[in-house]
Amino acid sequence: MKTLSTETRRVMTPLGAMDYTLERKKVKNINLRVKHDGSVYVSASKRVPVREIEAFIISRSEHIRRAAVYFAERDVKKAPPSYTDGEELMYLGSKLKLSLIPDSREYAELCGEELQIHIRDTGNTQRVKKLADGWYDKQCKEVFFEIVLETHKKFVKYGVAMPQIKIRSMTSRWGSCHYTRGMITLNRRLIEAPRHCIEHVVTHEFCHFIHPDHSKDFYALLGAEFPQWRSAKAELEKTVIL
Description:
InterPro entries: UTP_pyrophosphatase-like (IPR053136), YgjP-like_metallopeptidase (IPR002725). The chain is built from 6 helices and 11 strands.
């Protein structure tokens, strides 16, 4: 669609001054979008007066504010850890305090609500990360494999064989099913989510051994084997931001 012109403008709203980008396009309606960086984008036909466009923005100012706050909070959750003393990390839906302890022996251990990193140099964040990652990798293997074993029991009646499990970091998917190879891949970051959220993802992938697509039959099976999948999916996407 051809853009006729673009300009940056400012409008006064009940919430204060608001900058927005206005693009003139051959569109029927006034279209408003809040981008991930909080900026406001509006497109409208050249025939629509600016006063009408800005009246629309003012009417949507609360929606714009909520969207900007949501994206800002999302970016904070998405930011990688700095691996400094006192930082909060997520594990199975709960917060863990990272505690750096000077020690000649280097290892990581869970003590109550603390992930304690014993390390010679507490300022060596790369070494802290490596020790923390090693601990998380161990938890992934133990927790994920336990959930896979439990979930597989529900799929024996469908003739599904125990799959090979791989764990890796992924930026856009919680898991994937390679049904022709008998393999399920799980996102390492699932370990940050509550256990039932992980169970939902594992069940979802098991369902693909029977229905490789996302057809009605697939969701009927998922609903039968994990009735609360919708709430678990919503909680997962809120708790862990990819």
